[in-house]
Amino acid sequence: MNAPGVLGTVPAKLYINGAWSESSNGERHPVTNPADASTLGDVAWATTADVDRAVAAARAAADDGRWSGLSGRERSRVLNRAAALLRERTEQFAQAESADVGKPILFARIVDVPTAIEQLEYFAALAQTMDGAVRETPLPALSYVRREPHGVVGLITPFNFPLILSVSKIAPALAAGNTIVHKPAEDTPLTALLTAQLLEDAGVPAGVINVVTGDGAALGNHLVAHPDVDAFAFTGSTAVGKRVAAIAGGNLKPIMTELGGNAANIVFADADLNVAVDAVINAFIFNTGQFCMAGPRLLVERPIHDALLGILSNAVPNIPVGRPSDPGTVIGPLISARQRERVEGFVNQAVADGGKIITGGSRLDLDGGYYFRPTIITGLGNDALTVREEVFGPVLTVQVFDTEEEAIQLANSTRYGLAAGVQTGSIARAVRVTKRLKAGIQWVNGWAMLDPSVPFGGYGDSGLGRESGPEALLNYTRTKSVTIAVPPA
Ligand code: NAD
């Protein structure tokens, strides 16, 4: 039983077929606050039998058409109601997200919740635009093409942006008429449960959305291998993404994967330095560096290298690192002790590889939380592990280049291809360089400028498929063609 506090506001059970229940074996699991390693409370910990129950509920709801049978306009109204309710519940969601992830409350309020609202509103609008096509053929027939929902979709999300990443999947999946079984990350289950409650209150019928909290490998594998789930969307690490994609692919089930990243941020000497500094800092400290589209690889053109590093080494130590609940905090803790050890390991390896720490490089001791100072490292070659791998912490490596060609080669020398940034005063260069960068999302003179209408997704080991935009709606549909004989009169 959870005491009052953040978890006191969350229905901390499994949400299956429109009802809240304990897991089949009664197990519950603690939720840790990364800011002080305390326990926020506990949530129900599902078994594979609970996943089967959730899939059965979603299957029945898909098969009887209680959601897909509504018009797009009716589904749109429900999604808009959910958006309006979320706006009213901003503070509840922001507090839960902040405590669960260690996210500064400032950003939970002004980024996470508003982004989720925008996703709901955008896909509410798109729900009314599901259309098909008529094909002109030489047959004595009428041929038309329909887009239909897959049926039951399985959604698996990571720990770093629980609300945004859940809603970025739920909104298009519901807009297209699917039913859902959602498994949030084991470390950060709270806002997925609040979202289920929100959707119920907005009028989503029982069985259409089901949420099971529990162990990633056990439940995730079971869900992805489940014969009654028709399609999947997975966001998480590349290693796990490849594993789940292999299972889904082996069963010929479509799967969309949004995976890891290790983006380059290229600063040319002709860039506006103030704009570039903002872009460089935001790209590696936002969400304590735990974001897939982070830009941890800074590539700087030689003439401005020293000036840019001078500004960064003065500015970065002054960025407020601290308690997420403090409205002035910009950098909170990492998600777990394990994640902090991992980040620390990359920093130690960088030093062993000849890297020089310009600022940061160490833990911050505060309340027993998992804090790590924002860190800048120079002097590493392109083969260094800390440059090659996704660190997923507030760590920036800096490399210098002399030509545009060299910058492009360095930027592309990664197996990932999610994001990239180009800071330049030249439009011609921006167009030329972005065309050659192998990344699915790119920004010029800024970082992480996002909108629900703009497709989001990666190349290479960063995954397959796109979230946001009409492209996302298409991911949650399949194509049917119908040809009706029309004998000549
Ligand atoms: P993760 O891969 O460890 O976990 C992601 C999800 O998969 C969680 O829900 C987890 O419980 C589940 N899971 C774990 N093992 C599983 C298995 N064997 N089968 C099925 N599901 C399983 O990732 P994480 O540590 O939570 O998140 C960080 C990673 O996510 C980073 O690599 C980051 O770049 C990536 N990410 C990508 C995007 C994007 O849009 N491309 C967005 C956010 C995060």
Structure summary, number of beta strands: 24
What molecules are bound to this protein?
Answer: nicotinamide-adenine-dinucleotide
Write out the strand line-up for the largest beta sheet, numbering strands in chain order: 14-17-18-13-12-20-21
Instruction: Name the CATH superfamily classification of the largest domain.
Output: Aldehyde Dehydrogenase, Chain A, domain 1
Would you give an account of this structure?
The longest helix is centred in the N-terminal third of the chain and has 22 residues, at 105-126. The protein has helices at residues 48-63, 72-88, 90-101, 105-126, 162-175, 190-202, 216-224, 238-250, 273-285, 302-315, 337-352, 385-388, 404-412, 427-436, 469-475; strands at residues 14-16, 19-21, 28-33, 38-44, 133-135, 141-149, 152-156, 179-183, 209-211, 231-235, 255-258, 264-267, 297-301, 356-359, 363-364, 371-372, 375-378, 395-401, 416-417, 419-423, 441-444, 459-460, 463-464, 477-485. Strands 14-17-18-13-12-20-21 form a seven-stranded mixed beta sheet, with helices on both faces. A six-stranded mixed beta sheet has the order 9-8-7-10-11-23, sandwiched between helices. Strands 5-6-24 form a three-stranded antiparallel beta sheet. Helix 5 (162-175) packs parallel to helix 6 (190-202). It has 489 residues and is of the alpha/beta class. The protein contains 15 helices and 24 strands. The protein folds into two domains: 7-259 and 462-481, Aldehyde Dehydrogenase, Chain A, domain 1, CATH 3.40.605.10; 264-452, Aldehyde Dehydrogenase, Chain A, domain 2 (3-Layer(aba) Sandwich). 39% of the residues lie in helices and 21% in strands. The radius of gyration is 23 Å and the shape is globular. Nicotinamide-adenine-dinucleotide binds at residues 156-161, 165, 183, 185-186, 216-217, 220-221, 224, 235-237, 240, 243-244, 258-261, 292, 390, 392, 418, 458, 462-463.
